[in-house]
Specification:
single chain; alpha/beta; seven-stranded parallel beta sheet; 7 strands; binds nicotinamide-adenine-dinucleotide
């Protein structure tokens, strides 16, 4: 066995043009994978063109709004007809049409039912919908790896003191914690039920991987409480993703790799 080898494996990634995906897609290509990038942003094409220069015929894109369930199902069914999927990385998440960046709209008392439903739709239902069209073939082939990108807030709750005063806009909402806990629960369920077909399902729980535009004062506040005293970079996830997709993790299912600079140990 060549450990970490992904050659011949086709991997579908949702939210593929996002911040975290920018850290693990190219490493997967460099280990031999073929990647199907799903995103609503047309900019995913430019990203794919750049990657294709280095990895010709290894990158495909699907531009689709995953909130548009009919269009998304059609897109997935089309891919399932032409591609045998080995891996699926459920990475996309969106709080809703407004304030997508931080989701910082309101608190527990003011969040609307619609905001709750949207978080569960993007946090859990998108993963379910993405996996379904590919599962029959994965089970038949007796192999496959599903990775759900959760969050440390799939395991713990945010500390409200972090978001006091001027940092209120960075409040991590109860919708997020609840949806991510749900995704982690679904990970374990799928691991248990798919194991007999050698299809594995694991989670990754990133900690604070703030985007470069984040207020420096808030970043300092985060660094002060993170044991490793630094914010995560997207590339910090690459090793875990490659490990979970490759044969190296063939005896591992239903687990969560927490990559958070030690946040959750204290
Ligand atoms: N950034 C962090 O600090 C952090 C920490 C823990 C967990 N996470 C999780 O990691 C995952 C990726 O986070 P990120 O920071 O890279 O987010 P991001 O916002 O940078 O990327 C999300 C991607 O999803 C796409 N997307 C959004 N709505 C869509 C829709 N309706 N249809 C199709 N695509 C859509 C966006 O265009 C974007 O490219 C998420 O599940 C997030 O919850 C992020």
């Amino acid at each position: 066995m060549k450990i970490f080898d992904l050659s011949g494996k086709t991997i579908l990634v949702t939210g593929a043009n996002g911040w975290l995906a920018s850290g693990f897609i190219e490493p997967c290509l460099s280990f031999g994978a073929r990647i199907i990038m799903v995103d609503s942003s047309p900019a995913v094409k430019d990203t794919a063109v750049k990657l294709s220069k280095k990895y010709p015929r290894k990158v495909d894109t699907v531009i689709v709004d995953m909130f548009d369930q009919k269009a998304y199902q059609q897109a997935l069914n089309k891919i399932a007809k032409t591609h045998q999927m080995y891996g699926i990385i459920n990475n996309a998440f969106c709080f809703g049409k407004s304030n997508v960046e931080t989701g910082a709209e309101g608190d527990f008392m003011s969040l609307s039912d619609e905001q709750w439903m949207t978080a569960f739709e993007s946090g859990i239902l998108w993963a379910v919908q993405t996996v379904k069209p590919f599962l029959p073939a994965m089970r038949k082939n007796k192999g496959g790896s599903i990775i759900n990108i959760c969050s440390m807030y799939a395991l713990i709750a945010p500390n409200p003191n972090l978001y006091s005063g001027e940092f209120k806009k960075y409040l991590s909402q109860p919708t997020y914690t609840s949806a991510k806990h749900g995704l982690w629960g679904w990970t374990k369920y799928m691991a248990s039920f798919l194991a007999k077909d050698q299809v594995r399902c694991n989670a990754i729980a990133p900690g604070a991987f703030s985007k470069p535009a984040t207020d420096a004062k808030f970043i300092k506040r985060l660094k002060d409480i993170i044991p490793l005293q630094t914010i995560g970079k997207p590339a910090d996830l690459a090793g875990a993703v490659i490990y979970l997709l490759s044969e190296s993790s063939s005896y591992m299912t239903g687990q969560c790799l927490t990559i958070d600079g030690g946040w959750t140990v204290r």
